[in-house]
Amino acid sequence: MLIAMAGLPGAGKSSVADAMGRELAVPVVSVDPIEAAMWRAGVARSQPTGLAAYVVAEAVAGGVLTLGQTVIVDAVNAVEEARGQWRSLADRHGVPVVFIEVVCSDPVVHRGRLEGRSREIERFYEPAWEAVERRREEFAPWADDRLVLDSMIDLPLNVATALGFLAAVS
What we know:
Elements: E1 2-6, H1 13-24, E2 28-30, H2 31-40, H3 49-66, E3 71-74, H4 80-93, E4 97-103, H5 107-116, H6 129-138, E5 146-150, H7 155-169
Parallel strand pairs: 1-3, 1-4, 2-3, 4-5
Helix pairs in contact: 1-7, 2-3, 3-4
């Protein structure tokens, strides 16, 4: 199964993805550390490293699926092209794709999380709140069925909800 996380930066999707990965004992492929690695390798930030990070994440996730294992992809997935990328990957491997969107229903808490977080990703700079607000306006409407989790809810409860959802669709 391909589990594609989605949500704005700072909403809590990485926390949910990592907790699910530990619970399911499956790898989590995260776009942000991939992009930061490109910058550390000398690829200029002016290059389309965000798009390139999605392509690298797709290749890594595809390798995991080739092994017959479930994989979680942790990315914003705000646009239809990104979501289509995961649907296409799952189709090529003959596995279901499940989308899980994480939102934070309290904008004050969301902003505080974003501005106060440090994920220890070398040379990765968190986006400013204004950039997150712009991205919220650009977030494409969903055509896919998905589970929506609110990170204002306790993490273990959200993970249990996600695992129940996965069990129902597999």
